[in-house]
């Protein structure tokens, strides 16, 4: 008989490294998919290289523009702009109706892509925030950007709302897309790295919210109201709320090492699908505040109180090995379905560090009332010591879930079916 070893939310974190690989950092796939919707005669290509001797008209490498904005300006809808390696840190453009300077403004449905990937092709903002700030990239009208490092962008502290968002990239509509890029060490009041739009296979790291002179709620050290797909979000910081992501949603992402001064080291008010949330910290809660999480592992986060997760809906999630210096290390004020909460700790004297003021159904946690399909037995992970939170063959959590959210959680984190037997696993 074939032995089935099934996953809890499908999480396998071998010695702190996710099984999935991120950041291919190649522009080729993006360009191919873009050109695939056009006839060859329809799309023109424009060329950019910092060391070009001609500086225009940009129709071939020998006449390449020296700055990206010049190529964007002559391109029309459907064209592509190819950029050779270099650091693009001069020039600027202000969007009509706003005041903030942007290093690059992409205001039409074109693809701007690097030839050699993010590690060698850099768009650099500047200024210290406020009146002297220069954002990295402003995008609108279905624009696409692929294969860049975008760093050191800043935003204003006042004025138009859009001037305060997205230090690295601001995307004015949801169809804008950044692919295979490194978004690093940018800052803004909202969305230090990115605001709006969508990021695919991007690495958001070292971004932060700015700290204005007036007291105000600022949010989203990494991203604000964005959709993130297969992204790595790490070591971002918010001086108030949501070190990683504020609002928006994330699919197949890792949130690691993010922090917030007051609330939600990883995310606040966001929807997380098949993510890993680990080693984040904040005063209260440590990782996730409000929002929803599906098929997500939440582990090794730290907080002062009110859990790794507070006020959220958790479905097919595993909350394990989180800690608090006082009160709840696990979950506080949450609704949990098909989920496991186990071995969360407090360094204080709180009697039940795993959960408080929560609603459970078809879930597993210590001392749960055995109603609504709940169990209170140890979940029996396959290799706890090495961060393998799969269910062992004899786990009581096998086939113990409900189908209430089946349309959302048909697969686990690695894309494997959640339902092998009589019912879904927890």
Question: Nutshell version of this structure?
Answer:
The protein contains two helices and 48 strands.
Structure description:
With 426 residues, the chain is mainly beta. Helices cover 4% and strands 34% of the residues. It is built from two helices and 48 strands. The strands form six sheets. The protein has a 13-stranded parallel β-sheet with strand order 3-4-8-11-14-18-22-26-30-34-38-42-46, sandwiched between helices. Strands 6-7-10-13-17-21-25-29-33-37-41-45 form a twelve-stranded mixed β-sheet. Helix 2 links the parallel strand 3 (45-48) and strand 4 (80-83). The two termini are 23 Å apart.
CA-CA gap between termini: 23 Å
Shape: elongated
Helix/strand class: mainly beta
Biggest sheet strand order reads 3-4-8-11-14-18-22-26-30-34-38-42-46
Secondary structure: elements and pairs:
Blueprint (H helix, E strand, L loop, with lengths): L5 E9 L2 E2 L9 H8 L9 E4 L19 H7 L5 E4 L2 E3 L4 E2 L6 E6 L4 E4 L6 E4 L9 E6 L4 E3 L2 E3 L17 E3 L5 E3 L2 E3 L2 E2 L5 E2 L2 E3 L2 E3 L2 E2 L13 E2 L2 E3 L2 E3 L2 E2 L6 E2 L2 E3 L2 E3 L2 E2 L6 E2 L2 E3 L2 E3 L2 E2 L5 E2 L2 E3 L2 E3 L2 E2 L5 E2 L2 E3 L2 E3 L2 E2 L6 E2 L2 E3 L2 E3 L2 E2 L8 E2 L2 E3 L19 E3 L4 E4 L35
Parallel strand pairs: 3-4, 4-8, 5-9, 7-10, 8-11, 9-12, 10-13, 11-14, 12-15, 13-17, 14-18, 15-19, 16-20, 17-21, 18-22, 19-23, 21-25, 22-26, 23-27, 24-28, 25-29, 26-30, 27-31, 28-32, 29-33, 30-34, 31-35, 32-36, 33-37, 34-38, 35-39, 36-40, 37-41, 38-42, 39-43, 40-44, 41-45, 42-46
Antiparallel strand pairs: 1-2, 1-48, 6-7, 47-48
């Amino acid at each position: 008989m074939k032995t089935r070893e099934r996953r809890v939310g499908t999480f396998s974190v071998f010695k702190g490294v996710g099984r999935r690989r991120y950041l291919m950092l190649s522009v080729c796939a993006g360009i191919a998919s873009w050109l695939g919707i056009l006839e060859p005669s329809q799309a023109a290509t424009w060329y950019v290289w910092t060391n070009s001797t001609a500086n225009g008209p940009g129709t071939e490498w020998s006449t390449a523009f020296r700055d990206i904005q010049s190529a964007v300006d002559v391109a029309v809808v459907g064209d592509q702009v190819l950029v050779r390696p270099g650091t693009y840190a001069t020039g600027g453009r202000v969007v009509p109706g706003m005041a903030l300077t942007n290093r690059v403004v992409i205001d039409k449905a074109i693809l701007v892509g690097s030839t050699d990937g993010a590690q060698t092709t850099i768009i650099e903002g500047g200024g210290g925030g406020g009146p002297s700030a220069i954002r990295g990239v402003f995008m609108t009208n279905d624009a696409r950007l692929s294969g860049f490092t975008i760093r050191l962008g800043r935003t204003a502290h006042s004025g138009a709302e859009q001037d305060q968002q997205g230090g690295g990239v601001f995307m004015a509509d949801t169809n804008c897309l950044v692919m295979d890029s490194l978004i690093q060490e940018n800052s803004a009041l909202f969305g230090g790295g990115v605001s709006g739009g969508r990021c695919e296979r991007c690495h958001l790291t070292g971004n932060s919210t700015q700290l204005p002179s007036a007291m105000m709620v600022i949010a989203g050290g990494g991203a604000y109201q964005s959709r993130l797909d297969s992204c790595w979000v790490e070591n971002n910081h918010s001086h108030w709320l949501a070190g990683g992501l504020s609002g928006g949603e994330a699919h197949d992402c890792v949130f690691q090492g993010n922090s917030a001064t007051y609330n939600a080291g990883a995310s606040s008010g966001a929807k997380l699908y098949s993510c890993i949330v680990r080693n984040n910290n904040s005063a209260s809660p440590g990782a996730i505040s409000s929002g929803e999480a599906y098929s997500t592992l939440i582990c090794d986060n730290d907080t002062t109180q009110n859990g790794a997760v507070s006020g959220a809906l958790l479905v097919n999630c595993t909350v394990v090995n989180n800690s608090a210096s006082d009160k709840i290390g696990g979950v506080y004020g949450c609704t949990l379905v098909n989920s496991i909460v186990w071995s969360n700790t407090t360094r204080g004297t709180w009697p039940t560090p795993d959960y408080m003021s929560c609603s459970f159904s078809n879930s597993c946690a210590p001392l749960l009332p055995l109603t609504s399909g709940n169990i209170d037995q140890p979940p029996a992970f396959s290799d706890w010591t090495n961060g393998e939170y799969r269910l062992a063959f004899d786990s009581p959590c096998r086939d113990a879930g409900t189908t209430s959210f089946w349309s959302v959680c048909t697969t686990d984190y690695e894309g494997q079916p959640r339902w092998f037997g009589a019912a879904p696993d927890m």
